[in-house]
Write a structure and sequence with these properties.
By secondary structure, this protein is an all-alpha fold. It has a single domain, classed as Glycerol uptake facilitator protein (Up-down Bundle). It is 54% helix and 0% strand.
Length: 291
């Protein structure tokens, strides 16, 4: 390595949005360590003591901290994404579909930017399962993550019920089309979401710092497309928590199964089509939208 070259940061880890900015940190949620760079030392004329980037210890984020961040992030998402439709019902469509899409998309964006470096900001059991299936996340942590996500969804839903009662039914995702059409829509929009998430979270060529914006924009687009038809859930806990709070379980299986299958397909397809990096090829330097 020549003395004037900038040191290459570790490859983007396999979790949504983490880490979002160029640094020497390595996200402890990254399950696949094969993407770690080879040993790259500072120039010999650098001030003592010399060190190597791969010698820095990996931050050890406890599972408790990850679950805490995942619970808070999922709570914020479900509260925001469900409040929009409830306000539409209470105030005669004051939010509109665009407002509903913005509530969910902006919530996803700010959560990824604020907690992605801690828990990976999964916020979605379908995403967690898909990442585990593709070896971007350890299966051992999947049950704990799903418990945190489901419990956060239920807590957020009952908080909304207490605030906006008796208008909780407006936040339940119920299809206005046939069951088959709702299933197809939820499958396809979750496919879109996981295709984008897998790109910005696991591919070193993607601009990982833009993960929050890219994923949030995808959520907004999907709700604009499917919100009036299937509700634009993309997330089993987006449907499960409000359904429990409102006592309305109409075709709930669609919103549990279709997003999970769509997530597996979307993540799997991106893994198949993405460019492969050889062992001796330098990954593209990450860029930050804050610069």
């Amino acid at each position: 390595m020549e003395g004037g070259d900038a040191a290459t940061p570790p490859a983007t880890p396999g979790t949504p949005g983490g880490p979002l900015f160029t640094s020497l940190r390595v996200d402890s949620l990254s399950y696949d360590r094969k993407s770690m760079p080879r040993r790259k030392c500072l120039p010999l004329d650098a001030p003592l003591p010399h060190t190597c980037f791969t010698d820095f210890p990996t931050p050890d984020i406890s599972l408790t901290r990850k679950l805490g961040a995942e619970f808070v992030g999922t709570f914020i998402l479900i509260f925001a994404a469900t409040a929009g439709p409830i306000l539409n019902e209470k105030y005669s469509n004051s939010e509109t579909l665009i407002g509903n899409a913005a509530c969910a998309g902006l919530a996803v964006m700010i959560i990824i930017l604020s907690t992605g470096h801690i828990s990976g900001a999964h916020l979605n059991p379908s995403l967690t399962i898909a990442f585990a299936a593709l070896r971007h996340f350890p299966w051992a942590q999947v049950p704990a993550y799903i418990v945190a996500q489901v419990s956060a969804s239920i807590c957020a839903s009952f908080a909304l019920k207490g605030i906006f009662h008796p208008f909780m039914s407006g936040g339940v995702t119920i299809p206005s089309v046939s069951t088959g059409q709702a299933f197809a829509l939820e499958f396809l929009i979750t496919f879109n979401l996981l295709f984008v998430v897998t790109a910005v979270a696991t591919d070193t060529r993607a601009v990982g710092e833009l993960a929050g914006i890219a994923v949030g924009a995808t959520v907004m687009l999907n709700i604009l497309v499917a919100g009036k038809s299937s509700g634009g859930s993309m997330n089993p806990v987006r449907t499960l928590g409000p359904a429990i709070a409102a006592g309305n379980y109409k075709v709930i299986w669609v919103y549990l199964l279709a997003p999970t299958l769509g997530a597996l397909a979307g993540a799997g397809i991106y893994t198949l089509v993405k460019l492969q990096t050889s062992d001796d090829q330098e990954p593209r330097s990450a860029r930050s939208f804050r610069r």
